[in-house]
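Title: Comparing notes on inverse folding

I've been comparing how different people in this forum approach sequence design from structure. To keep things fair, I'm posting one structure and asking everyone to reply with a full sequence. Here's the target:
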């Protein structure tokens, strides 16, 4: 299959990174992380002052995770300007004075406050981008044997993206194609879940006094990292280490 602007980012997410022998982690997480980074860099640059972009960030705001991402880009002035106008809009929509008739009607403040705290510009744009890239993924899987082999070589697909891609598959494949795809998907995810479960079990057993010292041997790295890997597999996000 010929590469295009639609297939290149999907291929890049499924291919091994430099220094990797095989692809590591979930390819859809790699895809999502790339899209999120591009969006964050875009809105923290000149796009921040574009009226349509600013209107959307004022309306949607950002979730905690993406506030952290924006802070990590070390441009607090851009973030501060967006926060300033977003806060002004939140105040106007929730706390502006109402007329007598509005007081008699059902109070909507809690509903509006909940909506303001749950919406996120980056999440919305990322979901839009991922759904478009999913179309390319399903096309490539159907038309390219090389891409099928690349799919089979993945380490795993996390549970959130497993659920997402499985729910989308019936929109792209007929019965025979769908069955073949779902079998490959289930085999990949189930095999990793089984080995991961065994590693976590080994981690728990390492605290038995009879296994003292075993966990720190070089060949036990897959067991030492199993808790973090299980969290990543189940949530689609790498856990942040705490002291």
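Reply #1:
Here's my take.
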């Amino acid at each position: 299959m010929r590469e295009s602007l639609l297939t290149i980012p999907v291929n890049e997410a499924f291919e091994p990174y430099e220094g990797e022998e095989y692809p590591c982690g979930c390819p859809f997480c790699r895809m999502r992380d790339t899209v999120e980074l591009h969006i964050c860099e875009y809105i923290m640059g000149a796009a921040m002052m574009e009226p349509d972009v600013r209107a959307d960030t004022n309306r949607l705001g950002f979730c905690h995770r993406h506030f952290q991402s924006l802070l990590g880009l070390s441009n607090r002035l851009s973030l501060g300007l967006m926060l300033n106008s977003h806060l002004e809009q939140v105040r106007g929509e929730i706390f502006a004075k109402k007329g007598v008739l509005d007081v008699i009607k059902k109070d909507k403040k809690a509903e509006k406050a909940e909506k303001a705290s749950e919406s996120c510009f980056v999440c919305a744009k990322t979901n839009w981008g991922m759904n478009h890239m999913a179309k390319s993924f399903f096309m490539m899987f159907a038309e390219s044997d090389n891409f099928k082999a690349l799919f089979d070589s993945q380490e795993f697909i996390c549970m959130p993206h497993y659920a997402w891609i499985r729910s989308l598959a019936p929109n792209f494949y007929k019965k025979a194609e769908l069955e073949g795809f779902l079998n490959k998907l289930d085999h990949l995810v189930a095999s990793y879940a089984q080995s991961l479960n065994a590693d976590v079990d080994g981690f728990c057993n390492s605290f038995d006094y009879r296994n003292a010292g075993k966990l720190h041997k070089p060949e036990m790295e897959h067991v030492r990292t199993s808790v973090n890997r299980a969290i990543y597999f189940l949530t689609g996000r790498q856990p942040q280490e705490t002291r």
